[in-house]
Design brief:
alpha/beta, Rossmann fold, 4-stranded antiparallel sheet, about 35% helix, globular
Length: about 220
């Protein structure tokens, strides 16, 4: 299978005065197109930091992150912003919906930011909400939705621009067991249906076991399990 994501010798070091904290030193990762990879590890190991770097939300101290041989570590901020909007869907543990907006408006937002006409954005958002089982809830404000429904809206928002890569950071972490199971099933179904390249950070070993590959982040390196 073709390689969709490649990370080479990634380092992230936080400095405060003369002190420094190294999260990664020389981390490598390769993810094939259409592969679903789970990343597990202890709290504080750097799993969220890794996804932030992969999404271009933070910059590495050194090393490179390639998407289809494009080194995003060399992108300018405008280039990076356009790339994220077009190619990367990101689902957070907290849904980060805008509470004053409806579900429909929240899902439309990435397309409007990317310059899509409002009518096209509404059509895409309608289809996206239908795909996550919320066709009837589009005009409800975020605060009127349950936790599971809010996360479904967040998933629809992440995928509305048809990205090639989905990064999911503990998307079930704040949900009860039944709702968490439903959300994971939805993510897995969408990943398969859309042939998405997906990196999922999770503490749930059962969910991790249903992904194509499991990697443990430990002492700054990714280890196969």
């Amino acid at each position: 299978m073709a390689e969709a994501v490649r990370i080479e010798k990634l380092s992230k070091i936080y400095r405060s005065g003369e002190q420094q904290l190294a999260i990664f030193r020389g981390l490598d990762l390769s993810v094939a197109a259409g592969e679903m990879v789970a990343v597990i590890g202890e709290s504080g190991a750097g799993k969220s930091t890794l996804l932030h770097l992969m999404a271009g939300l933070d910059q590495p101290t050194s090393g490179a992150i390639f998407y289809n041989d494009q080194n995003i570590s060399r992108f300018s901020e405008p280039q990076l912003s356009r790339f994220r909007n077009r190619e990367i869907g990101y689902v957070w543990q907290q849904h980060h919906l805008l509470p004053e907006f409806t579900a429909m408006e929240n899902v439309m937002m990435p397309l409007l930011i990317g310059g899509s006409p409002r009518g096209a954005a509404e059509n895409a958002a309608t289809a996206g909400l239908s795909e996550v089982g919320l066709a009837a809830r589009g005009h409800h404000r975020a605060g009127e939705l349950s936790g599971g429904e809010q996360q479904r809206v967040a998933i629809a928002r992440a995928l509305v621009a048809n990205p090639s890569v989905l990064l999911a950071d503990e998307p079930t972490g704040n949900l009860d067991e039944k709702t968490a199971d439903a959300i994971f099933r939805l993510v897995a179904q969408l990943q398969s249906r859309r042939s998405l390249t997906c990196v999922l950070v999770t503490h749930n070993l059962r969910f991790a076991g249903e992904c194509g590959r499991i990697l443990r982040l430990e002492e700054g390196v990714l280890l196969p399990t």
